[in-house]
Design brief:
Blueprint: H1 41-72, H2 78-116, H3 128-135, E1 152-163, E2 166-180, E3 189-199, E4 205-213, E5 223-230, E6 234-244, E7 249-258, E8 274-277, H4 287-291, E9 296-304, E10 312-318, H5 323-334, E11 337-339, E12 345-353
Antiparallel strand pairs: 1-2, 2-3, 3-6, 4-5, 4-7, 8-11, 9-10, 9-12
Length: about 350
């Protein structure tokens, strides 16, 4: 049986302000790696499956803390942001170091297994050297002294633009963590590039961004484009792409415009609604959106017929810029049961899709 080497895979994340990860379940990284010189084929297979499962759990964990991160940025002063930032960096590095050490240990013992054909089994590998090496990775500070996870490189800064209440800027981040290029480039190793927009203003922004390559990305594209809503005082990924190691990005850019305020809602004074039967928004998060890291707020408008009824005429009036998320928001509100003393009045609700468990 042939085994393919398990490369350490982690979701791209940038050093963002972060708080306590109360809702994010940290994966249990306690697992044993068989000694390749004595392992059986079955032992190597079990270890490979366990490591891949752990990789998926770590990916979900990093998605979770990324989601909490964007929420934790709102309304924090500079000192609090710095403290939250350090908490995030510590959590990111601790988890990714464990996974990297285990993957390196497995890969080394996989090589030994292939070279020696293994043995009778029952012997555990000593992974201490690999774990220590992963933990001692250099973590270089970004310009200004801000720490970032060691696999992340600020490839280039874009421009900064002043708006009322602050400025917005954009940055190209390269995550050098080795990862598979996907089915279209089997056996090749890729890195991930992401254009992040930092919105320090008091306005919500609609942003478009692109990354152009000297060559193509893993999907054969010369340029990858994306768009996203970036809430005030937050940082968001607008577009990302995988490209084979050695393929450079030639240019990148982000263009953001303030989102126009919504017109007043024609609802009678004193009319309110209450949710009788709420829903879990995560149940309506499209799986494809999760896989593509699509996030963002959606504002929907709807009519409440009266007491204990499902909303009618549910419409998106402020898009997330993702049709999938917009449809998920409509479905989520339509599944609720609401009550109002005022019959057939229009109301609004803002739903925010965040990648978290």
């Amino acid at each position: 049986m042939r085994f393919s080497a398990v490369a350490f895979i982690a979701l791209a994340a940038v050093a963002l302000p972060f708080g306590a990860h109360a809702d994010c379940t940290r994966p249990d990284a306690k697992m044993t790696i068989p000694d390749g010189t004595a392992a059986t084929e079955a032992e190597m297979k079990v270890a490979a499956e366990a490591l891949l499962k752990l990789d998926q759990e770590v990916g979900e964990y990093l998605r979770c803390i990324k989601g909490e991160t964007s929420q934790a940025t709102v309304g924090k002063d500079a000192q609090t942001r710095e403290k939250i930032l350090q908490e995030y960096v510590d959590s990111h590095n601790s988890m990714s170091d464990q996974l990297a050490g285990l993957a390196a240990c497995f890969n080394a013992n996989l090589d030994s297994y292939r070279n020696t054909k293994g043995g009778a089994g029952g012997k555990t590998a000593d992974c201490s050297t690999h774990m220590a090496a992963a933990k001692n990775r250099a973590s270089a500070p970004a310009p200004g002294g801000t720490p970032v996870p060691s696999s992340l490189v600020k490839e280039a800064d874009g421009h900064s633009f002043e708006l009322p209440g602050g400025a917005w800027s954009y940055t190209l981040i390269r995550d050098e963590t080795p990862r598979s290029c996907g089915a279209n480039a089997a056996g090749k190793v890729c890195v991930k590039r992401t254009v992040f927009v930092t919105n320090g203003s008091d306005q919500e922004l609609e942003c478009k961004a692109y990354i152009k390559y000297e060559g193509t990305d893993a999907q054969g594209r010369v340029q990858t484009d994306g768009q996203a809503v970036v809430s005030r005082q937050t940082l968001r990924a607008v577009t990302w792409s995988l490209a084979e190691q050695g393929v450079s990005a030639s240019t990148f850019e982000a263009i953001c415009t303030p989102r126009a305020p919504l017109p007043p809602l024609d609802t009678k004074a004193g009319c309110k609604y209450e949710v009788v039967k709420p829903v879990n928004i995560s149940d309506f998060y499209p799986e494809e959106s999760r896989q593509m890291d699509e996030q963002g707020p959606v504002v929907v408008e709807f009519t409440v017929p009266g007491k204990a009824a499902s909303p009618t005429n549910v419409k998106v009036i402020a898009s997330s810029l993702s049709p999938r998320l917009d449809q998920g928001a409509v479905q989520a509100v339509s599944a609720m049961v609401m009550s109002s003393e005022c019959k057939n009045q229009r109301y609004r609700l803002r739903l925010n899709f965040q990648l978290e468990q």
